[in-house]
């Protein structure tokens, strides 16, 4: 609910910049559509920045590296200060979802690491891991 309120709040400048353009004309289009305005890029950048700031803390990428192996990569939103310790929990949650979606009985974590990588805008917290899914009883290796 809070996220939706913040997105709506970010759209207020866009809506405030709209006018019906009907001061003597017959156009029903907002003025920023019917005539270019220099404030459109600013408002668009402001909206994009607000969205990035309040979107999910982590982005997730997964790649199937074998018949039953999956590499899961998590990257934290650099502009958010909360949720630093969520990587392990989100990794295990996604691993469980993969098992359920594909009909496996369980998974084994083959490797897992967390750290900080350099990025264009500054350091970014990341988590990488590989799981191996199995059917039937787990066999020890």
From TrEMBL:
It comes from the Bacteria. Keywords: Signal. Residues 1-16 form the signal peptide. The keyword Signal applies. The keyword Signal applies. This is Lipoprotein. It comes from Sulfuricella denitrificans (strain DSM 22764 / NBRC 105220 / skB26). The lineage of its organism: Bacteria, Pseudomonadati, Pseudomonadota, Betaproteobacteria, Nitrosomonadales.
């Amino acid at each position: 609910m809070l996220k939706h309120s913040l997105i709506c709040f970010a759209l207020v400048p866009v809506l405030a910049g709209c006018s019906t353009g009907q001061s003597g004309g017959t156009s029903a289009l907002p003025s920023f559509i019917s005539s270019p305005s220099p404030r459109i890029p600013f408002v668009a950048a402001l909206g994009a920045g607000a969205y990035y700031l309040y979107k999910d803390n982590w982005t997730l990428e997964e790649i199937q590296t074998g018949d039953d192996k999956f590499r899961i990569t998590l990257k934290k939103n650099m502009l958010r200060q909360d949720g630093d310790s969520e990587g392990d929990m989100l990794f295990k949650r996604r691993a469980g979802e993969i098992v359920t979606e594909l009909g496996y009985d369980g998974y084994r974590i083959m490797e897992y690491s967390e750290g900080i990588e350099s990025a264009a805008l500054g350091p970014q917290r990341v988590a990488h891991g590989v799981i191996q899914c199995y059917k039937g009883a787990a066999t020890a290796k």
